[in-house]
């Protein structure tokens, strides 16, 4: 197992070495990805990834949080709780490619109407659409971490609050949330890590433009979507190496985020 | 402090807010299921399941090769990951406090967190490049890498709960260690391990990203693991992004089949857990 992981690390690093060697830091600061002219920079995709995932977190967090409070504090058992659990499981179980397909044929026309209404170029596809799909996809994940964190808040604290005459809302607001704060934050962090690596749905609705998006309605590309789109067609060894370099960035960031997130949760749950 | 009535009002408003946000979640789920079922049912027939994809413009096309391909890919992945995964899970429970076990645990966590597209790159570099072409085998290995952490974890978590007395009784009767493991410990945790395997299958059945440049897709029927092969997620991706309306119809049908399979499997697993 360890050998497997070391193997993965060594292979991915070795294979992206030509790209690291040829471009170095230039890979992170140039503004253009143009395989025809052999100009490669990861910046448009790093920007695309960050904007898309952060926007999706902004959309997903309030809903995931209230779902977590609802099922972790208000209805901890019974019919309603298992109904919510089933709902979340169903959403989590739908394959990514189906989200993308649905997004392409149902969501994109709706967004196009919205864009016409707002007076921006009606691409339909783009950062906003991807974020919306991504938000739907990470809500189940974020909500289930949040529910676990919130239901770990000691009962003594909640009961003490209620016994002092606080309303349930005040207990959530003054006791549960402050206590669970760092656990919830790391839940958001873990969802962020999850969203960065998400590929298919984003690939299908982001519009595949290798530029830094100027508005949230512009088409763009994320690191994972550019790999999905171009890897099978790349022939030049350096081109392939550059794509693997993107994979390396993805690997390192998701692993780091996962580590930090889990470490915070672990330390928090020991308290 | 506010008046009691305003405090109670705030509480009520918060409750209503929570219910409404939960309801919001029903909207995308309902919309997705509605569109997939409505568009999928229109194309699904016995012929659809048993014939091959055809060029756009011809009727009677189906997804038989994708269904067979998905089965073959999942089968390969399961064959590779189940023995390895159960062994590792057993190792983690038996030597749970050793240093090696904690290293392995970290590795499992990292492997679980690797984005699926990166797993696809790995299978490409390890299998496709040396073999000189896309193949079902490389796709199966990519999926096996994704299933492995799930099987290891569920095995470890199940076996941890098995009472020590069971193992001690077996060893006390003079049963050798390896037979105790194979005949007593693993069968005792069978249900939990099976749950992990089913969840793993449900997860990889819908995976597309690791297959894009490993299994690659194939318009024909094949059972040869050294050849490129089609699968349900691949056919959905390729046909959904094609400009032909009749191919898109096929993609809807394939989506319905895939979603029935995946959600059916996870419902089955849930009833298994409850038991």
Write the layout of secondary structure elements.
The complex is a heterodimer of chains A (271) and B (275).
Chain A: H1 2-23, H2 26-29, H3 43-74, H4 79-93, H5 96-118, H6 127-151, H7 155-163, H8 168-197, H9 200-205, H10 223-230, H11 237-270
Helix pairs in contact in A: 1-11, 3-6, 3-8, 4-6, 5-6, 6-8, 7-8, 8-11, 10-11
Chain B: H1 4-43, H2 46-50, H3 64-94, H4 99-113, H5 116-131, H6 136-160, H7 164-172, H8 177-188, H9 190-205, H10 232-240, H11 245-274
Report on this structure.
The complex is a heterodimer of chains A (271) and B (275). In chain A, helix 4 packs antiparallel against helix 6. Chain A is an all-alpha fold. Helix content of chain A is 77%, strand content 0%. Chain A is globular. With 275 residues, chain B is mainly alpha-helical. Chain B has eleven helices and no strands. Chain B is globular and about 70 Å long. The model of chain B has no long low-confidence stretch (mean pLDDT 90). Chains A and B meet through helix 1, helix 3, helix 4, helix 5 and helix 8 of A and helix 1, helix 4, helix 5, helix 10 and helix 11 of B.
The number of helical runs of chain A is: 11
Oligomerization state of this entry? Answer: heterodimer
Distance between the first and last residues' Cα of chain B: 49 Å
Count of the domains of chain B: 1
* Uncertain runs of chain B: none
The name of the CATH topology of chain B is MetI-like fold
Question: What is the fourth-level CATH superfamily of chain A?
Answer: MetI-like
CATH topology of chain A: MetI-like fold
What is the highest CATH level, the class of chain B? Answer: Mainly Alpha
Residue stretches of chain A low in confidence (pLDDT < 50, at least 5 long) are none
Mean pLDDT of chain A: 90
H/E element order of chain A? HHHHHHHHHHH
Task: Give the overall silhouette of chain B.
Answer: globular
Number of helices of chain B: 11
